[in-house]
Design a protein that fits this description.
Layout (H helix, E strand, L loop, with lengths): L1 H28 L10 H22 L2 H9 L8 E5 L5 H9 L4 E6 L2 H10 L5 E5 L12 E7 L8 H11 E12 L1 H5 L12 H10 L2 E9 L11 E8 L6 H8 L4
Parallel strand pairs: 1-2, 1-4, 2-3, 4-5
Antiparallel strand pairs: 5-7, 6-7
Helix pairs in contact: 1-2, 3-4
């Protein structure tokens, strides 16, 4: 049974890989600007088309088991208010609902088409969807008990700004989970030229520099028949309180809901 399961996952993986390569060729390689998908406007156009097939392909490369590993790192409680950054069509959102307890889940994305599909698919009384930019989050500081983002870090052109905003809105001791493609596997095929594929050591350094403790990480990958390497990472850290943030928070909160 295990071999049959691995064979099925292998076929799915190959289909998804070919589809992604074709999409990359038509939307990325033919364009002379590198890295293509770090440009917000171009990434928006890409996903306006790709979102139609996203739900079909996504579980092949970011499998249900991989998703379960990622969302369980959040380890949220029943009274927690959670923020998901880059929710897309709601694939990880569904995983959070299935494997975590929470009071409120706010899912944010910049792409209208992705959000439209997520809203149509997920009808949950305590889940809300917001259109917004992760570089300038429309929330007050210290409002979320946890933040999770999966499959978004690769489109972040300025990770320092991204970390700064996420760290601002998360409460002290809150957990921040990030999952995405890891550099080692993607660099072999030159795909790392087209979007951000950080090394796991780089992510650990970001967490440390922004005052997170209890940092844990793991590499992820599907269990295929031909033993596909683990090409994704998932990392978490708990925020430390910074006394210097107090005055800045008062000013920033004036313009946020």
């Amino acid at each position: 049974m295990r071999l049959i399961s691995e064979f099925k996952d292998s076929v799915k993986f190959v289909i998804a890989a070919i589809s992604i390569v074709l999409a990359t060729y038509f939307f990325v390689i033919k364009n002379t600007t590198i890295p293509f998908l770090l440009d917000k406007i171009k990434a928006q156009k890409f996903y306006n088309v790709f979102s139609k097939y996203y739900d079909l392909l996504n579980p092949f490369v970011y499998t249900f088991d991989m998703r379960k590993e990622v969302v369980r790192m959040l380890n949220s409680k029943g009274e927690d208010v959670i923020l998901e950054l880059g929710c897309g069509t709601g694939y990880t959102t569904e995983g959070v609902i299935l494997h975590n307890k929470f009071k409120i889940l706010v899912a944010l994305d910049l792409n209208k088409e992705q959000l439209k599909r997520a809203k149509a698919k997920i009808k949950h009384p305590f889940v809300s969807f917001v259109r917004g930019d992760s570089y300038y989050l429309p929330f007050r500081s210290f409002v979320f008990d946890g933040i999770i983002t999966a499959g978004m870090i690769e489109y972040i052109n300025y990770p320092v700004y991204f970390f700064k905003e996420a760290t601002r809105v998360i409460k002290n001791s809150g957990t921040f989970v990030i999952a995405g493609p890891e550099y080692k596997w993607f660099s072999k095929f030159g795909i790392s030229r087209f979007f951000y594929t950080p090394r796991i050591e780089e992510m650990v350094l970001f967490y440390k520099n922004f005052g997170y403790a209890n940092i844990q990480y793991k590499l992820l990958g599907p269990k295929t028949y031909f033993k596909t390497e683990k090409y994704a990472f998932s990392i978490k850290g708990d925020k430390y309180f910074n006394e210097n943030e107090k005055e800045l928070i008062i000013i920033q909160n004036a313009n946020r809901i």
